[in-house]
Amino acid sequence: MDNRLCNLLGTRYPLIQGGMAWVSSPILAAAVSEAGALGVLAAGTLPLDLLRQQIRHTRELTAKPFGVNVMLLSPTAEAAIEVILDEKVPIVFTGGGNPAPFLPSLLGAGVIIVPVLSSVSLARLLERQGVHAVVAEGMESGGHVGEVSTLCLVPQMVDAVRLPVIAAGGIADRRGFRAALALGACGVQVGTRFLCSSECELHPAYKAKILQAMDQDTVVTGRTTGHPVRGLKNPFTRAYQKKEQSGASPQKLERFGEGRLRLAAVEGDVQNGAVMAGSISGLIREILPVRAIVAEIVGETDQPPWR
User: Fold this and answer.
1) What is the helix (H) or strand (E) element at residue 95, kind and residue range?
2) Cα(27)–Cα(15) distance, rounded to whole angstroms?
3) CA gap 40, 180 in Å, rounded
4) How far apart are CA 32 and CA 186, in angstroms?
5) pLDDT band at residue 300, thresholds of 50, 70 and 90?
6) Residue 265: closest CA among 15, 25, 18
7) φ and ψ at 80, to 5 degrees?
8) Phi, psi of 27, deg, nearest 5
9) If I label 6, which of 108, 163, 178, 239 is the partner at 20 to 30 A Cα–Cα?
10) pLDDT in tens, 177-198
11) Are 118 and 103 in contact (CB under 8 A)?
């Protein structure tokens, strides 16, 4: 498609698979790239040798473009970027903070940099510093979230910067895709929908919980820490909320939440683990192959929205 985002990333469709820690494996990322969108690995808190292995494995599975997402809140973020540079990954997404300290090395290596943001002011700043596009992520997303909805954030960011703006948060099908384009976005980033894909190696219990979810089944925890997170309600989120309400310190809350995502995603403990998922979970009712999900999201449109 003749689209700014497609031209930048080298993809057929203006669709990005969100980088999700302990979920975005080489098999999922490669399948998304092979389907014409952009697959994204997640550095998260992966051991560095495993991150390197995943990058190389993805290259074995696809010759098409793919990216890596770096969570800047991770203690291994700086080292992960060194691995990414060493492995010559072409596209890097950042989340959870300001990537400015890493921009000189990434830009100097010719890496396409796309920060995931929930703030218009930070988007303006990073545009001046040379990033190539921005993801406007609304609070409907799973995982770390901001405080502004996708519907409000996307058009404000579109008006504020000249960069390609990618909409994220609450998008799982063609309706969400068209809505994002109508708001002025060049494309979309989708996370939760890809959790329930055949190629996603997420624990079956985690997938089942998403398939059973209704519209009121997500909750945001961690606001008192300054790093709120959206996930599906379960005994863990209820216990976390009680600790927040009782005035637990951010340090105690961080220790309480440590390892909870891996517990759910890898081990399948969806009662005591963090089942990160977006508000759109209530719309997802079946597991489909990646290719079918991509085709459904970017299917023919009756508008001329490609920017």
Assistant:
1) strand 91-95
2) 17
3) 20
4) 18
5) low
6) 25
7) -65, -40
8) -65, -45
9) 108
10) 999 999 999 999 999 999 999 9
11) no
